[in-house]
Specification:
The chain has 327 residues and is α/β, with parallel strands linked by helices. Helices cover 34% and strands 14% of the residues.
Length: 327
């Protein structure tokens, strides 16, 4: 499905890190590591102009700062990080086409076509996935505490994940359930992850705490917003929705949200949109620049890297304080 879509947009992709025939270079998070490398120190000798390079960031500012020495190499940066955390003249403030985990099991990897044609039977009421991580500079601690509280007060809630019920494929924690609690690790505009996308792919109705502008990407009826900082109110909202049969009422919107995950909000579409918006880029003169991995870029500019580290620590401290105040 996605390959066919790329062909419809006039694009041909190669995922070979040694390829030398390309008009654009797209990097998802970082350059790949060479064999035997724990952290990549690769330097890509560009076969395209420097302005024809795209970086997709995957982590929010509460977890990671990418650093000026790395990001400034790229012509375009697609990121959900706030402008204060990642400054770049070619930044595109958007969801970044993050990969989903639904259908990704050790025995089988579902294709987009298989997911599109899959209509799981809903035999149970509500589930969620929550690890035992409890970092204070992210929402991990708040998510864990909220999930434990809801599990104690909602006997019908099944909790999956490390430290609870492990699953080989996340679909196992979504397919049988009409409702799914989806909580992001960071609260910011445009920052939605597989936590929301996976619920849509399995045609569950998410009770969602995350990107305040999620309705810019999906039908407003395809999810129900909750605030895990107000657990009593969140519990009331969820119980009322289940009692009123909101899943059945909202199923058409959920199906449309799934279509958008598969067709509109994936990395192939985002790349195609950037290429289409820059028609002079394809077939342009070859480059002679380079793109360095995150580690290689830091090593080349130690003083700037030290400043980025200090900035990250300040952000983490601020987030910890905000977490303490929200308790």
């Amino acid at each position: 499905m996605l390959q066919g879509f790329a062909e419809q947009r006039g694009l041909r992709f190669t995922f070979d890190p040694e390829a030398r025939d390309y008009d654009w270079l797209a990097v998802y998070e970082n350059l790949p590591a060479a064999e035997g490398e724990r952290r990549p120190v690769r330097v890509e000798e560009l076969a395209c102009p420097q302005e024809n390079t795209i970086l997709f960031t995957t982590e929010p500012s509460g977890i990671k700062i990418y650093g000026r020495t790395f990001t400034r190499q790229f012509g375009h940066v697609v990121t959900s990080q706030e402008p204060f955390a990642l400054r770049h003249p070619g930044r595109i403030w958007s969801q970044a086409g993050l990969r989903w985990f639904y259908g990704n099991g050790s025995k089988h990897l579902m294709t987009a076509d298989e997911i599109r044609d899959h209509f799981p039977e809903k035999t149970r009421m509500i589930g969620t996935v929550c690890s035992t991580k409890r970092q204070g500079h992210t929402l991990h601690r708040l998510r864990y505490d909220f999930t434990q509280d809801m599990a104690a007060r909602m006997p019908e809630l099944d909790v999956f994940g490390r430290g609870h019920r492990p699953v080989d494929d996340k679909a196992e924690s979504i397919d049988p359930y009409k409702y799914h609690i989806a909580i992001e690790n960071h609260l910011a505009q445009h920052h939605f992850t597989e936590k929301l996308s996976d619920a849509f792919l399995g045609l569950s109705l998410p009770f969602y705490f995350g990107a305040p502008n999620a309705a810019d990407y999906f039908p407003s009826d395809s999810f129900i917003a909750i605030d895990i900082r107000k657990p009593d109110e969140a519990l009331r909202v969820m119980k009322q929705a289940m009692a009123d049969g909101e899943y059945e009422k909202r199923l058409p919107a959920i199906k449309e949200a799934r279509r958008r995950v598969l067709e509109d909000h994936n990395i192939i579409t985002l790349i195609a949109n950037i290429v289409d918006a820059n028609p002079g880029g394809s077939g342009a003169k070859r480059g002679g620049g380079t793109i360095k991995s995150q580690r290689a870029a830091r090593q080349g500019h130690p003083f700037l890297a030290a400043g980025d580290f200090a900035f990250r620590e300040i952000l983490h401290f601020r987030n910890r304080v905000a977490g303490w105040l929200s308790r």
